[in-house]
Amino acid sequence: MDAEELVKRVAEAVRRVAAQEILPRWRQLATHEVTQKSGPHDLVTVADREAERVLTAELLELLPGSVVVGEEAVHDDPTVYAALEGEAPVWIVDPVDGTRPFVRGETGFCTLVALAERGELLGSWTHAPATGLFAHAWRGAGAYCDGARLAAGSPAPGRPLRVAHSHPDYTSPRQKRALSVLNTEGVAPRPCGAAGLEYLAVARGESDAIVFDWENAWDHAAGLLLVEEAGGAQATRSGERFRLAGANDVPFTAARDRATADRLLALLRTHEEPPDAPDGPVAA
């Protein structure tokens, strides 16, 4: 199957699974269909689990010899994550990115799928079922949303940078200190919503950048390729590209253009955490 046909077939699968397994449960969840994983802000629903189960089967059928790294599969068996370092093509799946807004009945959630091989992102699919938005990208072929080619462009001169960053509910005291450098003149920071939708906003030029300090590949893979193929740039605090398998120097950024990414990286490097600085649990 050539790349164009694969992009089309995956898009069809993502739309179909969202229509069958996610949307019918939106605003219809029973109490027993929502459970916690690591804490009260880390939720999983029957929609997450069923959508990932069905998507996994369909994606493996589309590309024989591939493997799937899905958020819920990794939660059940953390060794699954190691497939990101293997030789086989890897589908990276977040069935419901933004589970909290999904549970609350809000529209800010999406389904994310990415395809990578030997650490390089090849394809990206982002679907917001509640609003109908659908974006995709393929390495070297551009990024598109609802059929229109995306061009991230550059921030308007003289205007503060609009930057979404890791939500305080999911950050430790150490991470909060690292992100505090964004509270400065020329930057207008705000807590992020669903990561996939934040990346899409950057690719569409509606937001100037994101800054995240967690590495889960399912949150970032689809969005990183989408932003790059829209003409944007990404890098970790050390200036290296984000590695899907982890061990990145975080925080990292994805921005509308290289100049914006470099500006934010320079700002992030101004924070130096003493090696013996106290940290603590993630706090709301």
Automatic annotation (TrEMBL):
<protein>
    <recommendedName>
        <fullName>inositol-phosphate phosphatase</fullName>
        <ecNumber>3.1.3.25</ecNumber>
    </recommendedName>
</protein>
<feature type="binding site">
    <location>
        <position position="97"/>
    </location>
    <ligand>
        <name>Mg(2+)</name>
    </ligand>
</feature>
<dbReference type="GO" id="GO:0046872">
    <property type="term" value="F:metal ion binding"/>
</dbReference>
<dbReference type="GO" id="GO:0007165">
    <property type="term" value="P:signal transduction"/>
</dbReference>
<dbReference type="GO" id="GO:0046854">
    <property type="term" value="P:phosphatidylinositol phosphate biosynthetic process"/>
</dbReference>
<dbReference type="GO" id="GO:0006020">
    <property type="term" value="P:inositol metabolic process"/>
</dbReference>
<dbReference type="InterPro" id="IPR020583">
    <property type="entry name" value="Inositol_monoP_metal-BS"/>
</dbReference>
<dbReference type="InterPro" id="IPR000760">
    <property type="entry name" value="Inositol_monophosphatase-like"/>
</dbReference>
<dbReference type="GO" id="GO:0008934">
    <property type="term" value="F:inositol monophosphate 1-phosphatase activity"/>
</dbReference>
<keyword id="KW-0479">Metal-binding</keyword>
<dbReference type="Pfam" id="PF00459">
    <property type="entry name" value="Inositol_P"/>
</dbReference>
<keyword id="KW-0378">Hydrolase</keyword>
<feature type="binding site">
    <location>
        <position position="71"/>
    </location>
    <ligand>
        <name>Mg(2+)</name>
    </ligand>
</feature>
<dbReference type="InterPro" id="IPR020550">
    <property type="entry name" value="Inositol_monophosphatase_CS"/>
</dbReference>
<feature type="binding site">
    <location>
        <position position="219"/>
    </location>
    <ligand>
        <name>Mg(2+)</name>
    </ligand>
</feature>
<feature type="binding site">
    <location>
        <position position="94"/>
    </location>
    <ligand>
        <name>Mg(2+)</name>
    </ligand>
</feature>
<keyword id="KW-0460">Magnesium</keyword>
